[in-house]
Write a structure and sequence with these properties.
single chain, alpha/beta, Rossmann fold, eight-stranded mixed sheet, 16 strands
Amino acid sequence: MKRVVLITGHYWNSKRKAGFHWLADAFLRQGWEVVFFTAPLSWLSVIRRDYRLDYPVLQEANKLQQVETKLWSYIWFTLWHPANLRWNVLNYLSRSLFRLYSQLPLGPVASMIEDADLFIFESTPALLLFERFKRLNPNAKFIYRVSDDLRLLRNHSVVLETEQRVASQFDLVSVPSQYIYRNFTDLLNLELHLHGIRKDLFDQEYTNPYPPSNYPNIIFVGNSYFDIDFIAQASQLFPNWQFHIIGPIKNLPAKNNIISYGELPFVATIRYIKYADIALQIRAYSPGIESLTDSLKMIQYTYCHLPIVAPAYLSSSKPHVFYYQPGYVDSIRNALVEAQSYKRDQIQTDQIYSWDELVYYFLKVPNKNVV
């Protein structure tokens, strides 16, 4: 039985289901043994009140947990990890210490690292483990799945330098957006693979969660960079439209037509997406935010044939996305009206992968270490 180790910032039993959860699921369906290796987590995470601490990560820290017959969860909890300390002086002084991160004890997962067939690293500070894992298991295949732009996430310079140093040593660097692709164009091992989705889940029948209405239901699903000003303006411009917000979004305006659900399990969000009329990708600007033009949510919305409203700095070639200039009321109004009138049957979905299809692309990449 083949084994894949997924090195990711996510916790296996999190309500939030990210790309690496679905990769794990796809590998399991194809008969692989999966080690879901969560890192980084450290006492710095505790100080910063990391959202993952809402789950029993401290109780499970450094314990190899068998979740299913072929699925293992391992939380690598350390004294510290490379983190942006917010002050240039502190970031500079911490460089030598942070470079030692990969040398910290691995614990009981070490034997599974040595016998694995495939490693897939997510874009997190745990990328510093690449060279150590390569030494422990030089014959395995190594893939770098760049889920996020490390610059957008404001990672410590040691992490950015590591990415630059080791990216070319992977058998494959797989990126999910055109924006991130441009960061690695000098690499010969680079491929553009948009996020996959669980087509089997989205294709199921669900009950409509929205009450009967002659007005559109607008959906947002996400947890970061939310444009509060947009929702304040839009809800006032269209008082009869219903704006449904799924995710841990704080400081929402207290309006009758803004309905907040908080964070929901992934499967519970599907019916809200399928039966919505318009989707929102309303992200406030931050350097590197352009990487979200091909985000997983954008792909899920597209698969459900939803017209999408997004800020102008997330522009792409997709004809079913309508753009607004943040802060401009007329621009917000026009984008929503155009989205409402768009014919949804024109939205193309034939280029959207399932996660199983994405795994197929990963597996056909040759291993540099095998002649």
